[in-house]
Amino acid sequence: MNQAQFLSLSEAASAIPSGSKVAVGGAMVMSPMAFVRELIRQGTSDLDLVVIPIGGINVDMLVGAGAVRSVEFPQISMGEFGMAPNFRRAVESGRIRPREHS
């Protein structure tokens, strides 16, 4: 019988090297924010994000921290708070490569 294996948040985040492709989801609810903050704290960079189904504050924080190289997405939104500001600035300035799939 297989034993369950548990990692600390720090150990799990350190398993994602810079330059990885990472799928994120959750938008404004059920988003893995502690994991997002740990990736930022560890200085992870050049991530290629795949957003499923909608990106929100999680994506915006990673982009704002300079951790993202590209984003594949159907929608990035802060819901009733409007457009994700870090994401918008990064796309407009050409700092990240967007691949929109709506």
Structure characterization notes:
- The protein has 102 residues and is of the alpha/beta class.
- The protein has helices at 9-14, 33-41, 57-64, 85-93; strands at 21-24, 47-51, 68-73, 97-100.
- It has one domain (18-100).
- α3 crosses α4 (85-93).
Helix/strand order, N-terminal first: HEHEHEHE
Shape field: globular
Strand order across the biggest sheet?
1-2-3-4
In which range does the helix fraction lie? 25-40%
Roughly what is the average pLDDT, rounded to an integer? Answer: 92
Strand content: 15-25%
Number of helices: 4
CA(first)-CA(last) distance: 43 Å
The largest β sheet comes out as: 4 strands, parallel
Number of domains as seen in the coordinates = 1
Low-confidence stretches: none
As a whole number of angstroms, the C-alpha radius of gyration is 14 Å
The structure class reads: alpha/beta
